[in-house]
């Protein structure tokens, strides 16, 4: 996990231990539930953990705030972010029950008391959140429809509450309806070739 320490050198000993444990945990669970491409498990830290932490380079989450991770799969980006921000509350949601079981198992093993996992469709989630995060589960206009109405009106961060969306490629067409969207190139934070086309889209939203 040297690649994590390369970009986040100030981790606590506890955080280092939790990130280090991810390799064995996901190796074990991926043999039973395919949450990561089998050929990509060796790239867990670069392609999944560090990719998820691209959101942390754009927005640090304050204690006691609430983050919703839609389409979390096996726990990305929610699990790496929950380790990074242990005093922030994370609600990880996926429609596939066996993937949520993996999330629950990983969170329990890591003693992540700030993680709640739920099998549900995005549209059915109630509650208000400071930010909604996700990794490219659908096109952005569709995603906005899913989460509209779930954003809290109380703003505690320097950025207005909204969506932080990990996506790659040409986003020009997807972003046309969203004049206020900001795009952050992950290549400006991370040196590896994998991140050359990867982005974080920030979209402020009103309830």
Description:
The chain is α/β, with parallel strands linked by helices and 207 residues long. The protein is 34% helix and 19% strand. The protein has helices at residues 2-7, 13-30, 44-58, 78-84, 97-109, 140-147, 172-175, and strands at 66-70, 89-94, 115-119, 131-135, 162-168, 182-185, 198-204. A seven-stranded mixed beta sheet has the order 3-2-1-4-5-7-6, with helices on both faces. Helix 3 (44-58) crosses helix 4 (78-84). The protein is globular. The mean pLDDT is 96.
Key traits:
7 strands; alpha/beta; 19% strand; 207 residues; 7-stranded mixed beta sheet; 7 helices
Radius of gyration: 16 Å
Low-confidence stretches: none
Q: Give me the side-by-side strand order of the main sheet.
A: 3-2-1-4-5-7-6
Strand element count: 7
Overall, the morphology is globular
Report the sheet with the most strands, covering strand number, pairing sense and barrel closure: 7 strands, mixed
Q: Bin the strand percentage.
A: 15-25%
Percentage of residues assigned to helices: 25-40%
Average pLDDT for all residues: 96
Q: What class do helices, strands and sheet pairing give?
A: alpha/beta
Number of separate helices: 7
Query: How far do the termini sit from each other?
Result: 39 Å
Q: H/E order of the elements?
A: HHHEHEHEEHEHEE
């Amino acid at each position: 996990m040297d690649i994590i320490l390369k970009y986040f050198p100030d981790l606590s000993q506890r955080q280092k231990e939790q990130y280090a444990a991810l390799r064995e945990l996901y190796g074990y669970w991926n043999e039973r539930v395919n949450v990561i491409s089998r050929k990509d498990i060796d790239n867990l830290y670069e392609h999944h953990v560090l990719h998820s932490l691209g959101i942390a380079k754009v927005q640090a989450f304050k204690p006691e705030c609430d983050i919703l991770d839609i389409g979390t799969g096996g726990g990305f980006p929610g699990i790496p972010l929950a380790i990074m921000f242990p005093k922030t509350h994370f609600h990880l949601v996926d429609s596939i029950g066996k993937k949520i079981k993996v999330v629950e198992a990983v969170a329990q093993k890591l003693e992540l008391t700030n993680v709640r996992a739920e099998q549900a469709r995005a549209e059915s989630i109630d509650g208000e959140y400071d930010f909604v995060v996700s990794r490219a589960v659908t096109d952005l206009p569709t995603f906005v429809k899913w989460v509209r109405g779930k954003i809290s009106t109380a703003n505690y961060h320097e950025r207005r509450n909204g969506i932080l969306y990990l996506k790659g490629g040409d986003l020009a067409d997807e972003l046309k309806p969203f004049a206020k969207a900001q795009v952050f190139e992950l290549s400006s934070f991370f040196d590896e070739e994998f991140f050359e086309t990867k982005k974080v889209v920030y979209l402020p939203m009103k309830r």
